[in-house]
Amino acid sequence: MPRNSDPTAQPLLSIDGVGKDYTATVLDGVTLALNAGEVLALTGENGAGKSTLSKIVCGLEPATRGSLRLGGRAYAPTSRRDAERQGVRMVMQELGLVPTLTVAENLLMGRLPHRAGWLRRDALHSAAQAQLAKIGLQHIDPATPVSALGIGQQQMVEIARNLQDDTRILILDEPTAMLTPRETNYLFEQIAHLTARGVAIVYVSHRLEELRRIADRVAVLRDGRLVDVRPMAGLSEDDLVQRMVGRSVSDLEHRPRRPAGPVVMSVEGIGRADVVQDVSLELRAGEVFGIAGLVGSGRTELLRLLYGADRADRGQVALHAAPEQNSPSAPVNQAQAATNSIAKDATAVPPVWKRWARGFASPLQAMAAGVGLVTEDRKSQGLLLAQPIRVNATLSDLGAISRGGWLQRAKELALVQGFVRTLRVRCSSPEQPVGQLSGGNQQKVVFARWLHRPVRVLMLDEPTRGVDVGARAELYGELDRMAAEGRALLMVSSDLRELMAMADRIGVMSAGRLVAVFERGEWSEQSLLAAAFSDTAGRAGAATAAAAGTSASPSQRPSATA
Q1: Quick one: which of 41, 179, 262, 436 could link to 218 by a disulfide (CB 3.0–4.6 Å)?
Q2: 263-370+455-556 in CATH: which number?
Q3: Within 10 A of 452 (CB to CB), how many other CB atoms are there?
Q4: Residues sharing a CB contact under 8 Å with residue 245, sequence separation 6 or more, in sequence order
Q5: At CA 475, angle to CA 426 and CA 371, rounded to 5?
Q6: Strands, E assignment, 152-305
């Protein structure tokens, strides 16, 4: 039974035969009860209908058929505001903050304190600080514009905004996709407080370890149908995977280290104000270099500097010549040469092909040099939502599907159909607008763009955000293939288990600095977290050594060179 539940009490929310049709049926005959004071995990593959069901409950979408009851009364919200008036709130996967307003104004939107028509700034900031403290964000100034925050911090603000006293049901759609373990723990503490008050939580996530930790029951959707509802107690992650995708998924955590080839890209003292502070590292052919750190540590900001999306104040980026090639003027065609070099000489540092003071001046310059980025913010930076899958997947390299300036439609369609099959994108056709896809399927389309345009260096910022466990394994397989072809991969993830499964080296960011680097086999979750909580390179070494129970090894030094 759920915590704080009364077996004789009626459900807080009853869902009876709910269905939803667009051009096709996405939900069909879903019947489910939600009890006061419980956490119900809602899971399933991308496109299974989780977000659609959540939106129906929260008034964002009307049901095509079926009915709902809230507290024993008919419930049919006409809008999100209508649902919130009745105590039903949702933290969406795609954030609903207003970037031009401050943190405080976003937190108290619709409830701004005023007197005689004048905004009371002191009361506004005091109330905002109390709300931020609930979720461990005391360090954020309420007067800060939301646009100045990183996306992980924005997600925390979105969560804090929905922690209202009048909440009866709170739906959390992938709430920890951009959060590190520290922020996740703050969230779970708040969930415990809410359920103790009788608030019901619907927790939508693909992070199975979180579901087992937080949920009382689990409901599994598959192809729009509810296929299983049962207590979470006693269920293993393998059981959950089998119910979600109908097959087992291999555990990569104990894989051996990939053989590393020569240096492909070197970074020396790159920095921007105090957001990224003089980071140096080397990326080698055939390996995955992971970046860990807390929200606000500078992880995303580092990748944006390396891609030219933001301009560095100082430092430099260099690309090295591909082995067995005198003039690396066409980097996208050099993967095979790099492949041949892997494991021949892991210490090789080929001559510099080209050097850029302060890094690339723009993403176009980075792409021309053979550097790509899978962005963390797919909505605003990664996709053209109104355009079809076909356009979004091939936009990175139109030259590959053109001849004489004319687009070769048949070649383009064949390529995109291959991406759809490989990545298992759930869609009606390659012509379906990307904005109509689920968040996880949108992420697959972003990833497909870099399958279309091979690069020597691919940077990935939260690449599996919102992606189900089955599709995640398929994306991991593509990353393995890229590494085997000799590409250098730089991967930022808030999921430490993901980094520990995929990376060959893990660097830890703290307060804008790269404070520690671990080789595969040397790290633990405790040592990574200890380094993340440090604020200087000097303190990081001590913290790391203390967590690991050993003295700092050369691989733990912040130079990040192999």
Answers
A1: 41
A2: 3.40.50.300
A3: 19
A4: 45, 468, 469, 470
A5: 115
A6: 169-173, 200-204, 217-222, 225-231, 263-272, 276-284, 288-293
Nearest to 153 by CA among 207, 90, 99: 99
Is residue 241 within 8 A of residue 471, CB to CB? The reply is no
The C-alpha atoms of residue 300 and residue 152 are separated, in whole angstroms, by: 10
pLDDT along the chain (562 residues), means of 10: 59 96 89 96 86 93 95 94 93 80 86 78 86 79 86 81 86 84 84 92 88 92 91 82 65 77 96 95 96 90 95 96 55 49 62 94 93 79 82 80 82 85 83 83 82 87 80 83 93 90 94 94 89 62 37 42 42
Phi, psi of 230 (to 5 degrees): -160, 165
Alpha helices in 42-180 (DSSP H): 50-57, 80-85, 103-107, 121-133, 151-161
Q: Residue 429 CB: number of other CB atoms within 10 A?
A: 12
pLDDT at 341: 52
pLDDT of residue 386: 85
**β-strands 65-70, 13-21 pairing:** antiparallel
Residue 270 phi, psi dihedral angles, 5° rounding: -70, 140
Which residues, in sequence order, are CB contacts of 406 under 8 Å at separation 6+?
none
Can you give the C-alpha Rg of the chain in angstroms? 24
List all residues 6 or more positions away from 108 whose beta carbon is below 8 Å from its beta carbon: 124, 127, 128, 131
Residues 231, 9: Cα–Cα separation, whole Å: 18
Pick the CATH number of 1-87+166-247 from 3.40.50.300, 3.30.70.3270, 3.40.720.10, 3.30.420.40: 3.40.50.300
Same fold, 1-87+166-247 and 263-370+455-556: yes
Would you say 415 and 392 are in contact if contact means Cβ atoms under 8 Å apart?
no
- From CA 26, how far away is CA 260, in angstroms rounded? 45
| DSSP-derived 3-state class of residue 44 | strand
Distance in angstroms (rounded) separating the CA atoms of residues 34 and 42: 11
Cα angle at 175 between 174 and 178, to 5 degrees? 95
State phi, psi for 65 to the nearest 5 degrees: -155, 170
Contact (Cβ atoms closer than 8 angstroms) between residue 57 and residue 68 = yes
Which stretch of DSSP H or E encloses residue 406? strand 406-407
Neighbour-count burial for 359-380, b at 16+ CB within 10 Å, e otherwise: bbeebeebbebbbbbbbbbbee
Tokens at residue 394, please?
Answer: 């091939």
* Predicted TM-score (pTM) of this structure: 0.66
C-beta separation of 40 from 216 below 8 A: yes
Domain residue extents for the chain:
1-87+166-247, 97-165, 263-370+455-556, 377-438
Per-residue model confidence (pLDDT) at position 2: 53
DSSP labels for 67-106? EEEETTEE---SSHHHHHHTTEEEE-SS----TTSBHHHH
| Residue 529: Cβ within 10 Å count | 19
What phi, psi does 56 have (nearest 5°)?
-65, -45
